Amino acid sequence: MQNVIEDFRRTINESYDRLARLTEDASAEPISSGKWSPKELIGHLIDSASNNHQRFVRAQIDGALTFPGYEQEPWVERQAYKDESWANLTALWKSYNLHLLHIISNMANDKLDVLCRIGSSEPVTLRFLAEDYVKHLKHHLEQILA
Q: Where are the extended beta strands (E) located within 28-111?
């Protein structure tokens, strides 16, 4: 997990600096036809942080759990991320991810194998959820910062 933690820390710090340089106008433009804008992508990543926050904490407390799935399109639409300030979104994204980094850094080794089910998917370990969270985060940051 130490490699994941270091990669996560580096990704947050390096990406935030680059995200902060995007203008309000540039952040509102879809990355390609029919795709989300950087604002909506960062909003989606905030939703991912929110959903995973619950998973990371609850699974350590309660053990094996089933969590609801995440309907990304309605979540992004209903929160109107496209109308939010870029500075507010990026500040929240950074802060939330620094908190998740803290949580992941403090997970006990014996909790990493707790099984979690998301919606109707097959169960995965808490370790997998943490690793996949960072992978998902990096995927969308690459879309924004390409």
A: 65-67
Token match 């939010």: residue? 84
End-to-end Cα spacing for the chain: 27
Beta-carbon neighbour count of residue 28 at 10 Å? 16
Q: Residue 64: left (phi > 0), alpha (psi -120 to 50), or beta?
A: beta
pLDDT tens sequence across 19-37 = 999 999 999 999 999 999 9
Given a cut of 50, the residues of the chain with pLDDT beneath it are none
Kindly state the tokens that stand for 105.
Answer: 């850094």
Compute the distance between CA of residue 136 and CA of residue 43 in angstroms, rounded to an integer.
13
